[in-house]
């Protein structure tokens, strides 16, 4: 993206050129030189900016779903949002993970491979403390969890997979399930060290405790659906595919819907004093002429003209004309 100069910067540049502090020829020479961009082959960028944006949108939705889920489970203030989305080698990611942390390993069919959710120890202990009836105090270290603690944390994060599934529904139908719960990243080797992964960092606040939840998506795992992460693909899939028989079903339901139909014999106006003196046997003069057609209303909207009559000893009205939409006399 080209940097846009502010007015102060433009004024300073013009002032420097006019006083001779800068040479215009040197500026032109610098612009004509080839700009070289350093590329690190060990840190291959295998996701385009568009795909990164799509993953960001997906996990912003996931963060909102997690906020709702943890708020209900922990019964305290919870705020989760996407802090960053980066692509880097798996080895670099695993080195950045604390030596003792909470690592939720899960699979999501039809993806082939494993996905990792790393939870900062401060956040993990705050959740554990809250679930067990405490105030939700965090603790920035983690030791080997007891069997009871492992069971509680496994169940708590296993239920987050429903939110993960829902967040990805717009791209693919997933069936995620928990595989393992680890606390030491040294025992975890999901993909080769040089494999590119996308790390979605979620800034998490639980009560007065804050920390990060990192989701690691290896490129080799989500590679089959990467083309679906483009905006072009999403726009194409926005066209709704009709279910066989859907049109006929809707049409039949509409045909059976009931509509109120009213026929007005006429109307009249009177003063409040006249209204207060009305009694049984009084006759009201309508503003409707005997030879004028009646107004037939559907849902209080004038639709037809009609004339009154009888059918099998019952009052009836015969439609004689359709009221055009541009008629404004009613």
TrEMBL record:
InterPro entries: CheC-like_sf, Flag_FliM, FliN-like_C, SpoA-like_sf. Coiled coil: none annotated. It is found in: Bacterial flagellum basal body; Cell membrane. Residues 253-323 form the Flagellar motor switch protein FliN-like C-terminal domain. Keywords: Bacterial flagellum, Cell membrane, Cell projection, Chemotaxis, Cilium, Flagellar rotation, Flagellum, Membrane. Gene3D superfamilies: CheC-like, SpoA-like. It is a peripheral membrane protein. SUPFAM superfamilies: CheC-like, Surface presentation of antigens (SPOA). CDD domains: FliM. The keyword GTP-binding does not apply. It holds the Pfam family FliMN_C. NCBIfam families: fliM_switch. Belongs to the FliM family. This is Flagellar motor switch protein FliM.
């Amino acid at each position: 993206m080209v940097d846009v100069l502010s007015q102060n910067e433009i004024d300073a540049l013009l002032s420097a050129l006019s006083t001779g502090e800068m040479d215009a020829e040197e500026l032109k020479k610098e612009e004509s030189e080839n700009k070289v961009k350093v590329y690190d082959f060990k840190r291959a960028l295998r996701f385009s900016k568009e795909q990164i944006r799509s993953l960001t949108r997906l996990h912003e939705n996931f963060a909102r779903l997690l906020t709702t889920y943890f708020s209900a489970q922990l019964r305290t203030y919870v705020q989760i949002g996407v802090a960053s989305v980066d692509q880097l080698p798996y080895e670099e990611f695993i080195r950045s993970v604390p030596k003792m942390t909470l690592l939720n390993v899960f699979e999501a069919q039809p993806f082939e491979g494993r996905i990792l959710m790393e939870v900062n120890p401060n956040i993990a202990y705050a959740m554990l403390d809250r679930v067990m009836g405490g105030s939700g105090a965090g603790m920035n270290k983690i030791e080997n969890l007891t069997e009871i603690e492992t069971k509680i944390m496994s169940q708590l994060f296993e239920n987050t997979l429903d939110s993960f599934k829902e967040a990805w529904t717009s791209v693919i139908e997933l069936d995620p399930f928990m595989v393992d719960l680890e606390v030491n990243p040294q025992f975890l080797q999901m993909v080769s060290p040089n494999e590119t992964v996308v790390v979605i960092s979620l800034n998490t606040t639980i009560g007065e405790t804050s920390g990060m939840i990192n989701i690691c998506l290896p490129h080799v795992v989500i590679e089959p659906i990467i083309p679906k992460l483009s905006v072009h693909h999403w726009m194409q899939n926005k066209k709704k595919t009709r279910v066989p028989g859907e049109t006929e079903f809707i049409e039949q339901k509409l045909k059976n819907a009931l509509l109120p139909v009213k026929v007005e014999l006429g109307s009249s106006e009177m003063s409040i004093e006249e209204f207060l003196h009305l009694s049984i046997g009084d006759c009201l003069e309508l503003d409707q002429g005997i030879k004028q057609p009646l107004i037939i209303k559907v849902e209080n909207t004038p639709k037809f003209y009609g004339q009154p009559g009888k059918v099998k000893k019952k009052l009836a009205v015969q439609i004689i004309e359709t009221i055009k939409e541009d008629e404004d006399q009613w």
